[in-house]
């Protein structure tokens, strides 16, 4: 949502609202609860995108440190406060979540939204800014070696009980030093997918904690 609003402006806000509404409606929530959540899920990204583009004037390629910090602070941490606060309030007002659990549910909601912005947002932005792949010969071989070895490492680490999760870090460093923002965000996303997949199947170092 926030990437679409950054790239295409406020005119796509109705699409963000429609997507949020139908997803929540599919979760067997009352239609009015889905409407309320969709309002917050639209206003949060919209506020973040407007502030980032109008006030901070970030470069969507995230080429500068200030752009990255602004995206983290206002795109992920700040704007997702709106989505989480509104969303849990709608669930509690509808009786789906008890008010006594508001803050515990709010924390999970906010972390999930913020991590979605941090992991998926930069991946989409950097690829949208530079979608043309120009790897040739040895460069292409290195790219295949990087993501092939990262995929295999993630598969091993997040599907085994061995506490070696930090072994994925050198691959992220490799992507950053040898390629750039686009490949680095791709590596980060691949690592996150591996960790989540392992957790869903109760494998890997995170399987002993709660799903949250």
Task: Give a brief outline of the structure.
This protein has 212 residues and is mainly α.
Tell me what the structure shows.
The radius of gyration is 19 Å and the shape is globular. Helix content is 72%, strand content 0%. The chain has helices spanning 2-8, 13-25, 31-56, 65-93, 102-129, 138-157, 169-178, 181-200. The protein is mainly alpha-helical and 212 residues long.
Distinctive features:
single chain; 212 residues; mainly alpha
The proportion of residues forming helix, as a percent range, comes to over 70%
Main beta sheet: none
Number of H- or I-type helical stretches? 8
- The number of E-state strands comes to 0
Based on CA inertia axes, which overall geometry fits? globular
Q: Structural class from helices and strands? A: mainly alpha
CA(first)-CA(last) distance: 23 Å
- Unreliable stretches (pLDDT < 50, length at least 5) are none
Mean pLDDT: 92
In sequence order, what are the helices and strands, one letter per element?
HHHHHHHH
Strand content: under 5%
């Amino acid at each position: 949502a926030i990437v679409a609003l950054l790239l295409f402006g406020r005119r796509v806000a109705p699409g963000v609202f429609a997507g949020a509404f139908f997803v929540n409606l599919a979760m067997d929530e009352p239609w009015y609860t889905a409407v309320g959540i969709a309002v917050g899920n639209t206003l949060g990204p919209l506020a973040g995108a407007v502030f980032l583009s109008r006030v901070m004037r970030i470069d969507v390629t995230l080429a500068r440190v200030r752009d990255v910090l602004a995206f983290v602070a206002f795109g992920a941490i700040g704007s997702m406060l709106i989505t989480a606060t509104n969303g849990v309030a709608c669930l509690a007002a509808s009786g789906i979540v008890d008010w006594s659990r508001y803050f515990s549910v709010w924390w999970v909601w906010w972390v999930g939204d913020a991590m979605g912005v941090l992991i998926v947002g930069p991946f989409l932005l950097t690829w949208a800014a530079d979608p043309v792949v120009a790897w040739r010969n040895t460069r292409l071989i290195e790219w295949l070696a990087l993501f092939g070895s990262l995929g295999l490492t993630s598969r091993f680490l997040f599907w085994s009980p061995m506490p070696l999760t930090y072994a994925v870090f050198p691959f992220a460093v490799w992507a950053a030093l040898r390629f750039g923002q686009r490949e680095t965000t791709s590596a980060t996303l691949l690592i996150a997918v591996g960790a989540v997949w392992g957790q869903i199947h109760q494998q890997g170092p995170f399987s002993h904690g709660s799903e949250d």
